[in-house]
Each structure stands twice: as structure tokens, then as C-alpha cells.
Amino acid sequence: MGRKGKLKNKLFLFLPISLMALLGLFLTFKRFYYGLGSVTNLSDAFPWGLWVGFDVVCGVALAAGGFILTAIVYLFNAERYKPVLRPAILTAFLGYILVAVGLLFDLGKPWNIWHPMVMYNPHSVMFEVAWCVILYLSVLALEFGSIVAEALKWKKVVNIFHAVAVPLVLTGVLLSTLHQSSLGSLFLIVPQKLHPLWYSSLLPLHFFLSAVAVGFATVILESYTSSKFLKRGLELDLLVDLGRFLWFALVVHLTVRWQDLFVSGALANYRPGSLEAIAFNLEMALLIGAVVLLTIRRTHRSKLGLFFAAMFALFGVIVNRLNVSIVGMLSDTQSGYFPAFSEIIITAFLAMMGFVAFFTCVHFLPIFPQEDHNAKAELKVQLSA
Amino acid sequence: MDSYGLLIDFSACIGCKACMKACKEANNLPGDPGDHLSYSDYTVVKQQGDVFYRQMCMHCLTPTCVSVCPVGAMAKSPEGAITYDGSKCFGCRYCMVACPFSIPKYEWNKAVPVVRKCILCYSRIKEGKEPACAWVCPMGATRFGKRDRLLEIAHTRIARWPDRYIDHVFGEQEVGGTSVLMISPIAFSDIGMRNTLPNEPLPNLTWTILRKIPNIVITGGIVVGGVWWVINRRMELEKENSNGKEGKVEK
Ligand code: SF4
Ligand code: SF4
User: Fold this and answer.
1) B52 and B116 inside one domain
2) What is the number of domains present in chain B?
3) Nearest bound ligand to CA B63?
4) What's the pLDDT band for A111 if we cut at 50, 70, 90?
5) Is residue B80 within 6 Å of ligand 1 at its C-beta?
6) Residue B44 is assigned to a structural domain of this protein
């Protein structure tokens, strides 16, 4: 490829990214200067929208790969999965930063975000959520810090990290368990407002079990994409193993969910053709679709089949989170909320920053450990190509 | 119980909206009286058929908003008023989502927004005065007093004029009881009150889960830590068995 071609390619990436960044910055200014109402469709009738439903609630679920993989590698000593450990930690770290930034956008007075640390109310689920974000973000920062220390060849720091790795990971796993489930607990307080297809006293359990599934799904996806674009990733048999775990996690989640639906009699509220019914169908179709793909031998043992199964599982859980936090809350509030254009743009802006940060980290840090000099050069070529 | 409350008798309300105006003055709320609760209207008088009724914060005995607020900006005073401290609030709006009556409202178009809702004229109560709405009401349709006493009055009225009221004191039982009590000639579900509210306070729903957290952390820590120890121990033993060969067993 000639010089010109390279330049063209760079522009091709650079232009939309900077346009998006400009738009994002402008809307950010608008948000903080004129208030939430100027960029969102939020209202007194519908105080939580896309930023809570997607940026925070889905964001945390998408970061589940981090605690699943650190648990597998450090606590269950399955060293085979080490090659994707760091990408998973990086994704979780960036994911949580995005959740925190998303919160800064959504909170009415974000400069008071430290208040839960000094003003206690252990009766509030939001209090638990706030603490989990703060603590788990610190754990992830330390785990990520060990990667940076290694890149900088700070032997002493690396050794300290090695010494505390297991307790650190253990703390992270416990915090994640609490945090994933607490996002479900947030909605325990609205039995009248949340549609019965989703309201359940088992919400925290549902959120936790589905987060475990997402964790496996994101690891599969990460491994697939990194093998595709960066020529790194897991061997097929390891992916097949992960697929088996994903299958198991999904089956457990779906069993508990359906048993709950039957026992609580929630299905009586299923009105074919209603918005809720469609959203519910979509959620179930995706999750069950993933299980089916993983049950059929041929798709379970092919990279592409695994990719689609993981995608289905991922989107199934995203739809579930949006159903709980947005769709299921619509009919009672009769607000007809739909995110404003600028609300969506800011979410996309944050996600884009996340991707840019991810690839920057991959570029400069030993995220894929066995990488030697050649591989790095190869990577550079591929990134700029 | 020694807390205060309001008794609102819809059959006596003539819809003059004096309470709305008095509320605006007492709380420095901008604009003319509106037709729905908002950051500038802590209470509204509405009409259903020929019945006038009021909407406002119910000042729950076990308030959901207080229980969900992570920073304690919402608080319950000993007198029964549910107050709000904007300097603590960080604007998560969980109180708005959680309140079973959807009372708290927000300043959506301010750079430094706060939550807005009736605080039962708390400063007036502390000065020994009645809340502005009760003080101004020409018909005595809104009445201030000790909750116990108001409850008695409500039941007496219903018993004396059974054809003027439906047999229900709203707020006596709902979500564990509220300090604001209402009696009405028409069903409360006809004036937009939920008839699906449990008598048990909503905060119990989350507290049953939240109070298990220390247990989950301790048990989880021991179980996961134990699993790690067992696996690690086994691997070390295997390593020793393979005659001190260096490197990992699984490779
Ligand atoms: S009615 Fe709503 S805002 Fe008022 S005290 Fe009860 S929970 Fe709080
Ligand atoms: S918006 Fe303010 S008052 Fe309401 S729950 Fe959040 S911090 Fe508390």
C-alpha cells in the first residue's frame, strides 16, 4: 500500500472519530450548562432513561468478563485461559470507567459524587451500588496497574502485585457479585411500577446469573475478535470449553427465570402484541437461541458458531437490562419515553472513547502477553493499515 | 405515636385553590399555580366529576424516599415531616423512581438542580404554626393535627355520614401508613391513587436483601478462598510429585 493509501485510510478513521468527539463535547457542554432537560427526554414521569439503563446498568453487565476470568485464572488456577486474561481486565477497567463517566453525565449534581462515601445510608441499594463502583474500580485499577508496571519494567511493583494478586482478585470477585446483583436490587422497590414480566423478588439473583453468562460471552467475543484482527486469542478447544461454560450459565439462568415466572404467575400478564410482549420475546429468543447454538455440536465446535452464540447471549442480556430499566417501566408511568437524539449521541460518544482507549492500550501495553517485537511491529502495521 | 399529619376531606373541598397559592408563598415557588405537581407546585387541586381533590407528598410513616436516598438527603423529622436537604443530594433521582406516589419532582432545566417536594412546611411546624395549606383552608378541608387524633376524626366522619364517604381512610394502612390522611366521596382509584399498594412498607422489600450482604461477603469469601486453597494445594503437591521439576503443571 502506498503512502497515499495509508493517509487515506487514516483519514477514513480519523474524520468520523473527531467529528463524533466534537459533537460529543458540544453536547457535554450543553448538558452541564443548561441542565439535563436540554439534552435528554427525561421527565418527572420518567426520571431514569438511556444513561442509567444502558450506560450504567448494561455497562456493568458488559464488564462481567473481568471478574469471571480473573476468578478462573487466579482462583481456580486454570492457567490455560491466561492469554485472554489481560484483555478481559482491560475491558472491565475501561467498562467501569465508562460507567463512572456515564454516572457523571446522569447525576444531577455529579460534583457531589463523593457524598455516599461520607454520608451513610446502608438501607439504600443506591448506596451499595455507589460503594461497589468505587471499590471495584479501585481493584480494577490495581489489576490494570500491574500491567502498566510490567510495561515500565518496575520489577519491585510487579512483585508486590504478584504477592497480593489472590486476595485482590478474591475481593474483586466478591465486589462484582454484589454489584451485579445490586443493580437488580435497585428495582425491588418498584413492585407497582415495573411490569410483572420483569418484576420479581429474585431480581438480584437473575441479574447475577445472567451477568455470569455475559462474562463468558464477552470473553469468547474478545478472543474471537482479537484472533481475527490482532492474530491473537485462544485455541479453538479452549473456546469450545468456554462455550460449554456459557451454555451452562445460560441454562441455569433461564431455568431459574422461568421457574420464577411460572411460580409467580407473571405470565398471566403476557399480552400478545403489546410492547412488553415483544420485548420479552426478543429477550427470550436471543437467550434461548444462544443455548440452541451451543447445544448443536456443529455450531458449538466452530468459531463462527461460538461467535454467534456469544453475540446472542450478550444481546439477550442487554435487552433484558433495557427491559427492566426502561421498557418495563413505560406502561405504568405512561410517559412514552424514548431517548433523545443527543442522549444517544452522548452514549455513542462515550462508547467510542472506550474503543479508542482500548486500542491505544493494546498498542502501548503488553495486553497480549506472548507478544514479541515482531508481533508488535505486525500489530502496528495492522492498526495503521 | 406522637407525630403530626394532615387530614384532607375531599367532600369539604370547594376547589378554591387557596392552599396552592399559600404553598407557593410559603415555599417561595415561582409562577402561577399549575395543573400538575412539578418543581414549582408542591400541591395541586384537581377535579373529578364534582369532587375536588388534592395531591401532595403523603409523608409516609416508613418513607420509601428516605430509605432509597444513598446520601440521606431525604430524612424523616420526629414530627413526621419528610424533609429534603439539597446540599447533600447528588441528583441520582432514585427517590423519584421509588416513591410509590411518584411525588418528588426535579429541576430538569437547571445547571444546579435539586429535587422538589412538599416538606410539610417543616420550618413553620417548628415555630409552632400549621403548614400553610391547612392554615389557609377556608373550609377546614385540610386540617393539621396529631395523626392519631386526625384518624379518629376521619373514622367518626365516615361513621356519621356513611353516604357522604366511601369507607376508607387513605393513608391509614397504605405502605405502612402515611401522615397525610384522605377521606373521599369517590373511590381513590378514580382519582389516580393506586389500589395495589401493600400495607407493608416498601423499604422492607430491599432491606430483606441488603441486610444479608455481610453474610454473603463472609460466606462467599470463605467458600471461594477455600476453593482456591484446595486447588492451589493440589497443584503444589503435583509439582512436588513431579520431582521438583520447574514450571507449571498444566501447559
Ligand atoms: S409520598 Fe413519596 S416523597 Fe412523600 S414521603 Fe412518601 S415516599 Fe417520600
Ligand atoms: S435524587 Fe437526591 S434526594 Fe433523591 S435519592 Fe438521589 S440523592 Fe437522594
Assistant:
1) yes
2) 2
3) 1
4) very high
5) no
6) yes
**Is position B207 within any domain?**
no
> What is the average pLDDT across B177-197?
91
Stated as kind and residue range, the H or E segment containing B146 is strand B142-146
Q: Which residue of A has its CA nearest to B219?
A: A174
Do B90 and B31 lie in one domain? The reply is: yes
Q: How many other C-beta atoms can be found within 10 angstroms of the C-beta atom of residue A20?
A: 17
B60 lines ligand 1 (CB under 6 A): yes
Looking at the predicted structure, is the pLDDT value of residue A1 above 80? Answer: no
How far does the CA of residue A113 sit from the closest CA of chain B (Å)? 6
Same domain as B51, residue B162: yes
User: What value does the mean pLDDT of chain B take?
Assistant: 90
Number of structural domains found in chain A: 1
**Rounded alpha-carbon distances, angstroms, from residue A6 to A163, A190, A364, A377, A383:** 45, 55, 21, 16, 11
Domain carrying residue B227: 212-247
Ligand 2 atom with least separation from CA of A108:
1
Tens of pLDDT, residue by residue over A254-276, are: 999 999 999 998 899 899 989 99
Closest partner CB to A34 (pick from B100, B102, B109): B109
At residue B115, the 3 state secondary structure works out as: strand
CATH of the domain at B99: 3.30.70.20
CATH number at residue A272: 1.20.1630.10
Confidence at residue B249, expressed as pLDDT on a 0 to 100 scale = 43
Same-domain pairing of B163 and B216:
no
Read off the C-alpha cell for A112: 457531589
β pairing state of B74-76 and B82-84 = antiparallel
Identify whether residues B97 and B218 lie together within a single domain. no
pLDDT average, residue stretch A5-13: 67
Look up the pTM and report it: 0.89
DSSP code per residue over A55-95:
IIIIHHHHTHHHHHHHIIIIIS--GGGGGGHHHHHHHHHHH
Look at A229-238, B144-153, B209-218 and tell me which has the smallest mean pLDDT.
A229-238
Residue B143, domain member (yes or no)? yes
Q: What is the mean pLDDT of residues B46-53?
A: 92
Q: Which three cell numbers stand for residue B35?
A: 395543573
Average pLDDT of A39-67? 93
Whether residues B74 and B22 share a domain: the answer is yes
What ligand has the least distance to the C-alpha of A129? 2
Is residue B151 domain-shared with residue B37, that is, in the same domain? yes
Q: Which residues in B lie closer than 8 A to residue A122 (C-beta atoms)?
A: 210
* Distance from C-alpha of A370 to C-alpha of A10, rounded to nearest angstrom: 28
* Within a domain: A11: no
Q: pLDDT-derived band of residue A376, with 50, 70 and 90 as boundaries? A: very low
pLDDT band, residue A233 (cuts 50/70/90): low
